[in-house]
Amino acid sequence: MEHITLLLAIVIVTALVFDFTNGFHDTANAMATTISTGAMKPKAAVAMSAVLNLVGAFLSIEVAKTISSGLVREDGIQPEVILAALVGAILWNLLTWLVGLPSSSSHALMGGLIGATIASIGVSGVDGGVVVTKVLIPAVAAPLVAGIAAFLAARLTYKLGKNVGEQSSAKGYKAGQIASAGLVSLAHGTNDAQKTMGIITLALVAGGALAPGSNPPVWVIVSAGTAIALGTYLGGWRIIRTMGKGLTDLQPQQGFAAQTSAAAVILSSSNLGFSLSTTHSCSGAVMGSGLGRKGGVVRWSTATRMFVAWGLTLPAAGLVAAGAEFVARQGDWGIAAVAVFLVASCAAIWLISRRQVVDHNNVVADEDAGTPVDPEPAGVVTTAIAAVTPPPAGTANEEAELDVKPTLPAKAGAVADPARPAGATV
Fold first, then answer.
1. What's residue 13's pLDDT?
2. Where would you tag: which of 27, 257, 302, 329 has the fewest CB atoms within 10 A of its CB?
3. Where do transmembrane segments lie in this chain (predicted)?
4. How many domains would you assign to the chain?
């Protein structure tokens, strides 16, 4: 192993903590729809996802290269900058987890790294071209591409299965969901574990333990894969609830379409070295598949809160990281202060989360167990759609017949209609 100083050791441990939070923050990406449709039990789902995240970490290092040698200047970065970036990313991950909003761990990390770098050496330390082409453009394109693909896939699955019994179709697609959820988990490990590999490699380069341009060492790959797998097994139940039930109501056909589309987008981007947000891809796919079923709607009130979180991720993590970098550069006492602040903040968020516990027992509606999930408000768009949607055939006539009341006696000499109750208004 390379020569590791105490500061580098602190940075590496903090990076693995971020990787751990990334795991439980993003478990919903792979398993929310599988759990919400009943294809798998919650604990079994997160266990399978954890194993495949670990396997996925060994499949590629292209994204790690983007983080370690493309986003910021290696020669101007000190380990304190990496520590500050991780502080901003971890705190944003935990805050969004607390409120149950699926936001991008990847963008939190990159926002923290950009903010800390600018605070340390200025704007020149950031490669703007890489930020635009490999961060911002994929951030916009990923949910759109995944959403459109999932919409079309959902429409196709319903069309192909229109002559198949509902129970048989649901059973088949639940089995397909398990396979597609495994593919998303594999893709998540391939994409997101690499980001921590990249940040640790950058720290090693900054601390002089590795030469610039080096690939992640094997021990970095193993430790990053293990940390994200452990976090995934813990399960980010609050975000799983939002992703599985808060955005739209999914049937197995839609869940299969959403997961398959998201996995295809994530794996493609990983091979191209794009530091893609798996959260953006999976959220877009869930919304697209929600609209892909006839009569399906998206809860735009929840989606709007999610979009706001997406927009705040880069600047919020960047600002926290910039402040942490300012304190950390003051010397040993500054690094200690940043570390204490991070630990205290994490403990406070955890204590607040204990006021309303969400776990595998109540992550989905379980009326038999007496723990139903409160439904999200439908929102303005969904309410408007429901208001103009015609009722199913026969409903209006049945209600009209039930609502008929005698108001006036029949006219003298009128011919009685045996099909109409006596005294009913004509």
1. 93
2. 329
3. 6-24, 44-61, 81-101, 108-126, 132-154, 196-212, 218-240, 307-327, 333-352
4. 2
Residues 291 and 419 in one domain: no
Q: Is the pLDDT of residue 36 over 60?
A: yes
Q: Are residues 136 and 267 in the same domain?
A: yes
Residue whose pair of structure tokens reads 């960047």 in the numeric block: 318
Residue 263 in contact with residue 49, Cβ under 8 Å? no
Burial of 381: CB neighbours in 10 Å, binned 0-12, 13-18, 19+ = middle
Cα separation values, 310 from 118, 279, 287, 303, 307, Å? 21, 10, 15, 10, 5
pTM: 0.77
Based on the fold, state whether residues 49 and 86 are members of the same structural domain. Answer: yes
Query: Rounded to an integer, what distance in angstroms lies between the CA atom of residue 50 and that of residue 56?
Result: 10
Buried b (16+ CB within 10 A) or exposed e, 311-349: ebbbebbbbbbbbbbbbbbeeeebbeebbebbeebeeeb
Residue at 376 is within a domain: no
The per-residue pLDDT for range 231-270, each reduced to its tens digit, is 888 877 888 888 777 777 778 888 888 888 888 887 777 6
- Average pLDDT on 318-342 reads 93
d(CA 426, CA 278): 62
Cα distance from N-terminal residue to C-terminal residue, the chain = 93
Instruction: Write out the residue range of the structural domain in which residue 395 sits.
Output: 390-426
Assign 336 a pLDDT band (cuts: 50, 70, 90): very high
Does the pLDDT of residue 99 top 80, yes or no? yes
Inside any domain, residue 208: yes
Q: How confident is the model at residue 400 (pLDDT cuts 50, 70, 90)?
A: very low
CB 153 within 8 A of CB 289: yes
| Residue among 277, 294, 276, 297 nearest 286 (CA) | 297
